[in-house]
């Protein structure tokens, strides 16, 4: 093949030879003009050498099976107008592709920056990335933007889109770009160029109309492809996160390829707002955060406390059934212990400062693991004693910055459903498999049927951030991969995201709105057994070092409860509901029968509330409905005479009269079966 020709491999496996410098748009046009009009951006990957075809296919098959990140094989997005100068595998992405949506959002950020500079030319630009829900642009302007300003920005964005300006990429010497931005006082652009490029390199600029921005790209072909957008809000942000620096304004927006998708997005946001656990927590009187006590510290009210007890009872019962031993450890321990564990060094910024007491310095515990290790060390262990599984619903304390806390989801004091397993190397894979199965059981039992799995491994280029040998790290990661593959669980590997002491499996549940929540974690640890010199006597009579597994399945009781509130919108299934049945007597003369019904329900183990107020029946029913009570029982002369109840079911309404005994059987079955639905 001529040096002036390159190979383009299409998704169907076919290969085309085209002149060097051919663009993705040229390829699309050669296939179909309709395709060329529909594509947004291209994804390319360098083709592997022919000699490695079998190996490459095997690697790609393994990658697909485990949802590995593709960045390691050189895959990247490029503009449709970018010249192709090497043999590549090419994908032409349409509007339906998730990656294309992020590209149009990044382009929308440029459209917004164009509008801002046209309206407010004194503004200095920072950066404008795409996000999962839209985009933002950080800007510096002494005068804060008003709501009227945001409306004007959105209106001018429509003008920029209507002009259908092409996005064109240019390159220039780094030093020239720095000089121009420094001359104009664009301090943020100067910082980004200095940070992300090296002396002597070329920097990339993107232009549309009269607007130019330092940017890596890629972008949609023109501003006209940004069809549906909205400027949503503005918030303050310090430059580089330092309160001593300039106060920036972060202007938020979102963009879609069509109005229908954007309308659906805002409808979903309204649904998310209606499910906000902070609002529902107050409305249903479940929990509070008291300013006088401190931020990030949760007060569980009686109703929330009932749900918490139900959650914890379920977890303890399951732990015991699965061979765990329940333990309890102190809230504070000597600083020396945290030095041995490594937390005082590797995790110090997330811990509360030491407290000086008479005999030593103490620290609040951010983790339960050192306490469980001390329990293990308290007596000699034989291989016959392993595995040792210690579980604790232990309170831990971590210092979270004031701006990061969020209701129950990010707090400073929380209860971790922590467990640590000490086992032989031969037992490790079966123990990890049991932890993963336990995690699946937790999610299904509480009503989550979908989840995604990530495997966080170390970054061998950043050895200072991790402890242990390369051999330990590779072996541990291989064990986790083997377990997930054997169970047929697809996973995505994320290098550099492991804990400092070992790789981990993160299980992210998907809630009713499709949102991902990080909760369950299973972590491998070969570090702490070595630091604490843990031992067991092997079958050969010699001393050996156990392997340790950390696992938390709720993650934290607080965070899991917050997710439950939003998943169910406060309408908890029968077995979790703090108040399961509300009783409404039609008049005062029916109080005696109502009290008799209440007594029988409570004797059956049901949580019941009787509204004996001198109020109208409908007002009482409405109150129970607002509290999202699963069942409301109404009773008058007819019910009292036949020992029956009139049943109103949450979400269904009036179901009519039924014998009290039949209702009790129905209600207790729902509770005992712990169904995630009513």
Total DSSP helices? 21
Lateral arrangement of strands in the main beta sheet: 15-19-20-27-24-23-21-22
**What overall form do the CA principal axes indicate?**
globular
Distance between the termini: 68 Å
Rg:
30 Å
Largest sheet: 8 strands, mixed
User: How many β-strand runs?
Assistant: 32
Output mean pLDDT: 92
Helix content: 25-40%
> Low-confidence segments, ≥5 residues, pLDDT <50?
49-72
Percentage of residues in strands: 25-35%
What class do helices, strands and sheet pairing give? alpha+beta
List keywords for this structure.
single chain, 678 residues, alpha+beta, 8-stranded mixed sheet, 5-stranded mixed sheet, 21 helices, 32 strands
Written description of the protein model:
The protein is α+β, with helices and mostly antiparallel strands. The strands form eight sheets. An eight-stranded mixed β-sheet has the order 15-19-20-27-24-23-21-22, sandwiched between helices. A hairpin with a 5-residue loop joins β23 and β24. α6 runs antiparallel to α7 and α14 (428-445) packs across α15. The protein is globular, with a radius of gyration of 30 Å.
Blueprint of the fold:
Layout: E1 5-9, E2 15-19, H1 24-31, H2 33-38, E3 41-46, H3 53-66, E4 76-78, E5 88-93, H4 98-119, E6 124-125, E7 135-140, H5 147-163, E8 168-173, H6 174-183, H7 187-196, E9 202-208, E10 211-214, E11 228-238, E12 247-256, H8 259-274, H9 277-283, E13 287-288, E14 299-300, H10 302-321, E15 325-326, E16 332-334, H11 335-341, H12 343-346, E17 355-356, E18 361-364, H13 369-377, E19 388-397, E20 413-423, H14 428-445, E21 451-457, H15 470-486, E22 492-495, E23 504-510, E24 516-525, H16 528-531, E25 536-537, E26 543-544, E27 547-552, H17 557-568, E28 581-585, H18 591-603, E29 608-610, H19 617-626, E30 631-635, H20 637-642, E31 644-649, E32 653-659, H21 660-673
Parallel strand pairs: 1-5, 15-19, 21-22, 28-29, 28-30
Antiparallel strand pairs: 1-2, 3-4, 3-5, 6-7, 7-12, 8-9, 9-10, 11-12, 13-14, 16-18, 17-18, 19-20, 20-27, 21-23, 23-24, 24-27, 25-26, 30-31, 31-32
């Amino acid at each position: 093949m001529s040096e002036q020709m390159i190979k383009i491999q299409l998704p169907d496996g076919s290969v085309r030879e085209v002149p060097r410098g051919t663009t993705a748009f040229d390829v699309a046009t050669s296939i179909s003009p309709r395709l060329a009009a529909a594509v947004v951006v291209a994804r390319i990957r360098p083709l592997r050498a022919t000699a490695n075809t079998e190996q490459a296919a095997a690697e790609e098959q393994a990658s697909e099976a485990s949802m590995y990140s593709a960045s390691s094989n050189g895959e990247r997005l490029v503009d449709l107008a970018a010249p192709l100068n090497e043999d590549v595998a090419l994908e032409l992405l349409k509007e339906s592709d998730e990656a294309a949506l992020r590209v149009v959002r990044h382009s929308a950020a440029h459209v917004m920056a164009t509008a801002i500079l046209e309206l407010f030319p004194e503004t200095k630009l920072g950066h404008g990335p795409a996000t999962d829900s839209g985009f933002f642009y950080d800007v510096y302007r002494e005068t804060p933007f008003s709501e009227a300003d945001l409306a004007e920005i959105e209106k001018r964005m429509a003008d920029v889109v209507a002009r259908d300006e092409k996005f064109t990429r240019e390159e220039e010497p780094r030093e020239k770009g720095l000089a121009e931005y420094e001359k104009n006082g664009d301090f943020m652009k100067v910082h980004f160029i200095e940070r992300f490029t090296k002396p002597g390199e070329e920097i990339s600029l993107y232009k549309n109309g009269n607007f130019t921005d330092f940017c890596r790209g890629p972008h949609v072909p023109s501003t006209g492809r940004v069809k549906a957008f909205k400027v949503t809000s503005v918030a303050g942000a310090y430059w580089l996160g330092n309160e001593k620096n300039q106060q920036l304004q972060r202007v938020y927006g979102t963009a879609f390829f069509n109005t229908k998708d954007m309308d659906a997005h805002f409808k979903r946001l309204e649904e998310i707002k209606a499910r906000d656990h902070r609002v529902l927590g107050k409305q249903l009187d479940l929990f509070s955060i008291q300013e006088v006590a401190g931020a990030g510290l949760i007060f569980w009210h009686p109703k929330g406390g009932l749900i918490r007890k139900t959650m914890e009872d379920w977890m303890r019962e399951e732990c015991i059934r699965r061979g765990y031993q329940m333990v309890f450890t102190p809230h504070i321990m000597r600083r020396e212990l945290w030095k041995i564990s490594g937390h005082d060094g590797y995790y110090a910024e997330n811990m509360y400062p030491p407290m000086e007491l008479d005999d030593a310095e103490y620290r609040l515990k951010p983790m339960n693991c050192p306490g469980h290790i001390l329990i293990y060390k308290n007596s000699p262990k034989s291989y016959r004693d392993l595995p040792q599984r210690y579980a604790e619903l232990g309170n831990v304390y971590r210092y979270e910055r004031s701006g990061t806390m969020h209701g129950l989801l990010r707090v400073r004091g929380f209860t971790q459903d922590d467990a640590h397993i000490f086992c032989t190397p031969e037992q490790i894979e079966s123990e990890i498999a049991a932890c993963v199965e336990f995690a699946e059981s937790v999610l299904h039992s509480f009503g989550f049927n979908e989840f995604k799995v990530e495997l966080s491994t170390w970054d061998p280029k950043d050895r200072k951030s991790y402890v242990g040998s390369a051999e330990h790290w590779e072996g541990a990661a291989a064990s986790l991969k083997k377990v997930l593959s054997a169970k047929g669980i697809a996973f995505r590997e994320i290098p550099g995201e492991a804990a400092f002491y070992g790789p981990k499996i993160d299980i992210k549940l998907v809630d009713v709105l499709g949102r991902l929540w990080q909760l369950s974690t299973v972590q491998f640890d070969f570090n702490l057994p070595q630091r604490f010199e843990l031992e067991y006597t092997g079958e050969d009579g010699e001393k050996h070092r156990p392997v340790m597994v950390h696992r938390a399945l709720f993650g934290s009781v607080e965070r899991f409860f917050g997710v439950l509130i939003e998943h169910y919108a406060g309408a908890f299934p029968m077995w979790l509901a703090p108040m399961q049945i509300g009783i409404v007597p039609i008049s005062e003369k029916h109080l005696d029968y109502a009290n008799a019904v209440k007594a029988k329900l409570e004797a059956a183990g049901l949580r019941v509330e009787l509204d004996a107020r001198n109020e109208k029946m409908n007002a009482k029913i409405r109150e129970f409905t607002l509290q999202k009570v699963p069942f409301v029982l109404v009773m008058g002369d007819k019910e009292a005479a036949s020992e029956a109840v009139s049943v109103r079911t949450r979400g269904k309404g009036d179901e009519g009269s039924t014998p009290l005994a039949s209702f009790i059987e129905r209600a207790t079955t729902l509770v005992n079966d712990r169904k995630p639905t009513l």
